[in-house]
Write a structure and sequence with these properties.
- There is one protein chain.
- The chain contains 14 helices and nine strands.
- By secondary structure, it is of the alpha/beta class.
- The protein has two domains: 235 residues, Alpha-Beta Barrel (TIM Barrel); 66 residues.
- It has an eight-stranded parallel barrel, surrounded by four helices.
- α2 runs antiparallel to α11 and α4 packs across α6.
- The radius of gyration is 20 Å and the shape is globular.
């Protein structure tokens, strides 16, 4: 699994890459880096949102994604995250949602590299953690290669080395967040060209990737692949040992995860999202429909024992 560990990572996804999903991914592959769902700097500063990650055994494979545009506030949030020992501080410069755009952060920051540089420099005053940037190849009619190139030049002056590039432009206001993940066409060649120009930077490509078996040809062009929706739908792809036939190992992982949830829910609040993460993980197996229905029932009843019994009674099988 060495190549998987180094080359592939999990994209930040709102409502999906929460602390429970990070825990689940850790059971599948302890070395795969997961990026948390976007958290605004103010939420990190004013609440205990990061405490949700306290029960992770190795938080050093979890990168925290922070949103905002005020250097001093981003720095305070990053300091708080660094104290938890997150793997990396990632600044969101790519989210195109209406709420984010109206707040003048996210994808807006692609057009304001000097402000992002001020944010990165202020964060560096508070922590030695590595800082990365996630953005897109352009926004609206600002699609000239100079836009992204100049962005990297400016941020390199703040000693930023790592950039995660979603290989689509973003279209503000006219498209919602979901459509921005599908309608703008993918342009992988633009990202490959960026890597050629910025050889000394770590460039990770994101957008439309569905597995972890890409050949050496793409690996020569880029430093890594970040996988989003498919990583959530089929996280088994991050462990090459977890083939379709290896259902027993998969059941063991989910059984362990459910036991963890039981202990967690006894101490803290019940979180239905934690169960949504496993609802579709046995799709393609005999018993998958019953499993999905049972997970939905457990969400309503807040009782996980039926899920454990279902696994113990060997009701999931290879077709």
């Amino acid at each position: 699994m060495e190549k998987l560990d180094k080359f592939y990572s999990v994209a930040p996804m709102m409502g999906k890459t929460d602390s429970f999903f990070c825990y689940l991914l850790n059971l599948i592959n302890k070395k795969t880096v997961v990026y948390t769902e976007m958290m605004h700097a103010e939420a990190i500063i004013r609440t205990n949102i990061l405490d949700d990650y306290n029960y992770l055994n190795n938080i050093n494979n979890v990168a925290v994604q922070i949103a905002g545009n005020e250097p001093s506030r981003l720095a305070l949030a990053a300091k708080k995250a660094a104290e938890k020992d997150f793997y990396e501080i990632n600044i969101n410069c790519g989210c195109p949602s209406n709420r984010v755009v109206s707040g003048s952060f996210g994808i807006n920051l692609l057009l304001n590299p000097k402000q992002v540089r001020r944010c990165a420099e202020e964060i560096s005053r508070y922590t030695n953690k590595n800082i990365s940037i996630k953005t897109r190849i352009g926004v609206d009619d600002y699609t000239s290669e100079n836009i992204l190139d100049n962005f990297l030049v400016e941020l390199n002056n703040a000693s930023i080395n790592k950039y995660i590039i979603h290989a689509r432009i973003a279209i503000r206001e006219k498209l919602n967040t979901k459509d921005n993940l599908n309608i703008p066409p993918l342009d992988y060649e633009r990202v490959f060209k960026l890597k050629k120009k910025f050889k000394n930077n770590t460039i990770i490509i994101n957008g439309g990737f569905k597995h972890t078996n890409y050949n050496e040809n793409i690996k020569r062009k880029i430093d890594g692949i970040m996988i989003g929706r498919e990583a959530y739908k089929t996280p088994w792809i991050f462990n090459s040992d977890l083939t379709y036939e290896n259902i027993e190992k998969k059941k063991y992982i989910i059984y362990t995860y459910i036991h963890f949830l039981k202990n967690n829910f006894e101490k803290y609040l019940f979180k239905k999202n934690a169960l949504f993460h496993i609802q579709n993980l046995f799709n393609g197996y005999d018993g998958a429909k019953n499993w999905r229905n049972l997970v939905a029932h457990s969400v309503r009843s807040k009782n996980l024992n039926n899920l454990l019994n279902f696994i113990e009674c060997d009701k999931l099988k290879v077709i």
